[in-house]
Amino acid sequence: MRSVEDQLAAVVDAAVAPEPIRVALTDALGLMCAEEVTSTTQVPGFPQAAVDGFAVRAVDVGGSAGLRRPERRDAAKEGAEGEAVTEGADSEAPADPPVARERALPVVGEVPAGSQKPLRLQPRQAVRVATGAPLPTLADAVLPLEWTDRGRKRVTPQRPVRTGDFVRKPGDDIQPGDIAVRQGSVLGPAQIGLAAAAGRDKLLVYPRPRVTVMSYGLELVDLDRTPGLGQVFDIASYVVAAAAREAGADVHRAGIVNAEPRRMRETVAGHIAKSEFVVVTGAVGGSGAAPMQEILRELGEVDTTRVAMHPGSVQGFGLLGDERTPTFLLPSNPVSALVIAETFIRPAIRRSLGKTAVARRTVKARSLRELDSIPGRRGFIRARLMRDADSGEYLVEPLSALEAGPTHLLAGFAEANAMVHLPEDAIHVRPGDIVDVEFLHQRS
């Protein structure tokens, strides 16, 4: 019997990334970048207003008597975030200071964001600017709207600014020649934004791996038919297809394979040639699966050694076809199929996507119930994971057969948000014992 670690190592080692393709930037989220993206321009390309306010020369407002500047830390923070200064910041200024009329600056124009009309500022003048607007020539600072009397024709500063305050300087974010996105990085929102800033509307990426899920079994019928005596719906292939898609794959559910040997072989061979992974549910677990296993062995190497785990001990894995496509053989039982998909298929998909963390997060939690496991096998027990509001400690409630139904039924998994992992030598868990718990997909 093979260990879980050995089976996982074989599966993950066989996972390869698909050949790179060029996709639209809007379709690249979550994929691994296959090229180095270098900026050819500076971002921003011109001096921009970081807040709504007035473009000024700092010398015209920085030395006025009776004006006290807030701490530099606040100005720098607010300007970096590009947000309007809150009213609470006014507490830095003297309450209702006397305003001398000679401090007022004439407002000689207004520049909205996106303006292409050049303006030139003269000494002792102000121009109203919106966030993102280009600064007029000679302006070296922006006086935030909240730091003035909000005058329309003449504006009176109530605080001073220094050169560079609330201004986004050219090249602050990216300089020409800077690497905006590195090859091999996974494209998140920030990377997408940097690629856009570099002017790229398409990127070379490793696409989502193509996963084909098919099912085999004389007892199976699809959902558009009514099961007769001895027949059941094909559930496992839907379960595995959903799990693979949630892991990030491009999934094709091929449905139930025709049992005639020649057509069975043609179907499997065709999908192997155009997939990064193939999953066949119902291909293990009894004499009924023998015809499918025979066909698969004609196409390549297949290993159906049992894995030391429960549920899902009966499974298989192989490399089929000239492409040596990783192929998973799963039982038709949906719970066993889902546990195998979470434990082996998900990490393989994540590795082919270039993810560094291929497994879900696990934590230590205190069990709230007694729990028994099978000696010599790693247990994967559906559970509810909670957290104590006072101590922050994780608590886990294994779902019993009484509450969640027998272990072969899927309904219990619908109530679970985690799986307890019990090592091979953990035969009995008492209430209060610490166990390893894996997060499952969180439902909002």
UniProtKB/TrEMBL annotation:
Keyword line: Magnesium, Metal-binding, Molybdenum, Molybdenum cofactor biosynthesis, Transferase
Official protein name in the record: Molybdopterin molybdenumtransferase
A GO CC term assigned to this protein in UniProt: cytosol
Function: Catalyzes the insertion of molybdate into adenylated molybdopterin with the concomitant release of AMP.
Cofactor dependency: Mg(2+)
EC category: transferase
Protein's UniProt keywords contain Metal-binding: yes
